[in-house]
């Protein structure tokens, strides 16, 4: 097998990198992790290494995968437990992962991911709060139907659907919009996961030169 490589963006800001990294680590794939600092979105460095000009991008045993849901499906070929075993639960997991992948644009814009700041109260537009309400309802339905026996969406196992929503959790923890008790409990469980903790610790150790003013001054901009 050729040496695998997983290209990722700045941990502090790159929500999609977090998803891809979690999926690869959950699947147990050995890959060199190459972090390319972002420059207000995509960097020239990312465009130089990724076919799509975006991260995450995985090269593994001849396969080249530059899209997060495709990475999820590829990883599941090695670790089928990334998706629930039951057919109905598995279909639901894929549906909610795809909804995350394609939707919630207002939340993404209003509350960009930043793992190093406390932006409590910021970003609460009618559109972002509507996205959060949909997410809360989706989490509640999933947990009620499939999540017995554990703290995650499908119970005791942190799976691909949880990986897709982990950056949403990160946003909610940074901006702290009003949440129901069940959603808050799920956010706390995701944050405690060992891999999520490892990612946060890595973000805290990134060079200060990687900080981007546009993501570090949202509180000042809100007051101006």
Characterise the protein shown here.
A four-stranded mixed β-sheet has the order 2-1-3-4, covered by helices on one side. It contains eleven helices and four strands. Strand 3 (57-60) and strand 4 (63-65) form a beta hairpin. The chain is globular. The chain has two domains: 5-80, Glutaredoxin (3-Layer(aba) Sandwich); 83-200, Glutathione S-transferase Yfyf (Class Pi), Chain A, domain 2 (Up-down Bundle). The chain has 224 residues and is α+β, with helices and mostly antiparallel strands. The protein has helices at residues 15-27, 44-49, 68-78, 87-102, 105-110, 126-146, 160-175, 181-192, 194-204, 213-216, 218-223, and strands at 5-8, 32-35, 57-60, 63-65.
Main features:
Glutathione S-transferase Yfyf (Class Pi), Chain A, domain 2; Glutaredoxin; globular; single chain; 224 residues; 4 strands; alpha+beta
